[in-house]
Structure formats: C-alpha cells, structure tokens
Write a structure and sequence with these properties.
Distance between the termini: 57 Å
Number of helices: 8
Shape: globular
Radius of gyration: 23 Å
Strand content: 15-25%
Helix content: 10-25%
Number of strands: 12
Number of domains: 2
C-alpha cells in the first residue's frame, strides 16, 4: 500500500481511475491483436456427456472475426429435472476461461480482455437454465465447457490445444454414523479429480483438476474428521489415453468405515460412459468406474448405501492422449513402464 501511495504521489495521481481505464483498454487491444493473428471463420463441435437419465449433447459454435470471439451453444440439450443444470453466469465464466487459456493467456484477465469474448446459450437449454431449475451440482456440466470450446479451437490452432480431460471434479461425499452406539453423525467431503488431457509437447497432468484448479487436503485430515479410512489412493495404471503425449492418469481410491459400519456415498460423476477423447490420433482416456470391493457396480450419480463390512472402490477417469502413439519417444514409454503408469 505504501508503494502504491508513493507511485501516486510521483505521478501526481489523485485516484487510480485513469490507470485502471488504461490497463483495461490496453488488455482489450492486446486480445484483439492476438485474435487478429487467427483465421476468421466459424467452427463447430459436439461433446456427448453421460447426463443422468440419458446422454446429453453440448453443441458448440465458435466464431472469430475482427470484433473478437463469440461462442454459441445452440442445439445443446434442454434443462434436466436434476441439479446438473447450469446458470448462464457460470456458462459465461467457464467458456470465457477456456478461450482465454488458449488465446492470449498471458494478457491480464479483466473487463477489457473479456469484453471481446461473447458467450450465448438459448434460454431453457442445460447451459442457460432459468429459475427455478435445479443448479446445485452445476459443475458436473459447467466444468466441461473449456473442453467443449477446445473442440472448436483445435480446428483453428491444432498445435496449441490439449486433449480432453476428466474436466468435472470427482468429489467424494460420504455421511453416516461414527459407530453403532453413540448416534454421533459425520459428513466428509474430499475434492478429487481424474487425469487431465495431454498437452502440446507434454503428457497430461495426473489426478489434477482442470479447469477448476481445486486441490484436496491430505487424506489423513479426512480420516481425523470422519470414521472413514482411505485404504488406497494411487494412480490408476493404463488410464491415460495413448498418444505421442499420454493423457494424465486417473486414480484409484478405496474407502471403508473404520468399524466396518455402513455409510452413504453421494456420487456426482461424469466420464463414466463417455470418455475423455484424444486428439489428432491420440487415444481416449479410460472411463471412470464405481463399485463395491466385491465387484458390485454402483451408479455414478445419486446416493448409495455402502453396506457394513464392504469397501467402496472409485476408479477415476484418465485424460485423452494427443498425437499418433507411433510418434511417442521410446524413452517416454520406458519411463511409463518403470514408474508403473502403464502395464505393458
């Protein structure tokens, strides 16, 4: 604060309005310069996601011209009778974020740089849900939007766009009783993610949340505040899509009650039926999976009672690969085998 006051005194500024306006306008012009380096035109892509009752489509149209970038979601599936609907503000934010990660990522993120990115979705589609539509778990769809945008941008600047990743967070939410005698209850929330998509020139990040950037606390903390034990938390071999650059690995979590009691697990998972797709010849990541330790399959969305004496097994999805697998360096394959990232 003192340095700021000194600067204002040096330049005889009474307030920061003029400086702020300059930064915003300069950022806007910088974005227009970056956009001007791209070919003008319109590109389309479709991403099919699991949904709840049936698969849903996120249909994307991206237009580039001298005024900026516009993204439209006409043709996207309608509002659903579940909490996966997304309000327009959330759609705008995650779509703009996806654009800004690729176009002018080093330009300051402010009203100026965002002004040239326009986002629209028809009222009543799942990405522009009007009141009173349920939007409590909007991240399940909303965090897919950068990948939806990349489906278009990969056609414009293919050497700068990553493959699809898990995208939507795989949060672990469990509740129940500490034991069978006291009636003391618990609720435990743990943020987790599968693998991110392979990046131009680099493998995808494993068990890393993109686009949310959320990090989880150590499992030991979760074990202190709940009666649950994380019996396993490890990378999931072979889950990243093959390619010149491999998709990030998912993880495997095994969760059980300390006293072998039952507990309720609330799942809000995507990429269980429809995988993160590879790009430019790269393979798809493995889909996620949810079972009991005896192999009983469990639903990817909704509440499930994990019976007494049983453990919950969560296999997180992997990210898509990028580029032809035949172009992957032999040293990279040997390293993957040595570290157990792949089985063969």
């Amino acid at each position: 604060a003192l340095r700021l006051i000194e600067m204002m005194a040096e330049y005889q500024l009474e307030d920061l309005n003029e400086l702020g306006e300059y930064i915003i306008e300069t950022s806007r012009q910088a974005m227009l310069t970056e956009i001007g380096r791209l070919p003008a035109g319109t590109w389309h892509s479709t991403m099919r996601v699991d949904g709840v009752d049936e698969p849903l489509d996120i249909v994307t149209e991206l237009n580039i011209d001298a005024q900026g970038v516009s993204v439209k979601f006409d043709g996207t599936s309608p509002v659903q009778p579940h909490g996966i609907n997304v309000p327009m503000s959330y759609t705008d934010a995650y779509t703009s974020f996806g654009v800004r990660c690729i176009i002018g990522p080093n330009i300051p993120n402010n009203a100026g740089s965002l002004q040239v990115v326009q986002v629209s979705a028809p009222v009543g589609c799942i990405l522009n849900a009007p009141r009173p539509a349920a939007v409590n778990i909007r991240h399940v769809m909303g965090q897919m939007l950068p990948d939806a945008v990349y489906g278009c941008l990969s056609q414009v600047i293919p050497d700068q766009v990553p493959a699809e990743g898990t995208s939507s967070l795989w949060n672990l939410l469990a509740s129940g009783n500490w034991d069978g005698s006291t009636g003391r209850q618990f609720m435990m929330m743990s943020f987790n993610s599968g693998g991110a998509g392979a990046r131009p020139g680099q493998d995808g990040l494993s068990a890393t949340a993109f686009p949310s950037g959320v990090k989880n606390m150590p499992v030991e903390i979760n074990e202190v505040v709940s009666p649950l034990v994380f019996w396993r938390k490890e990378f999931r071999p072979d889950s990243g899509g093959d390619g010149e650059f491999r998709g990030g690995l998912g993880q495997v979590v095994e969760l059980g009650h300390r006293s072998d009691g039952e507990f309720v697990f609330s799942a809000t998972f995507e990429r269980v039926t429809h995988p993160a797709r590879g790009r430019h010849g790269g393979g798809n990541g493995l889909t996620g999976n949810l079972t009991l330790d005896d192999g009983t399959p469990l639903p990817a969305k909704g509440n499930t009672v994990v019976p007494s004496g049983r453990h919950l097994i969560i296999e997180f999805p992997g990210g898509g690969g990028l580029g032809d697998p035949l172009d992957r360096e032999e040293g990279a394959r040997l390293r993957d085998q040595r570290l157990g990232y792949v089985s063969t």
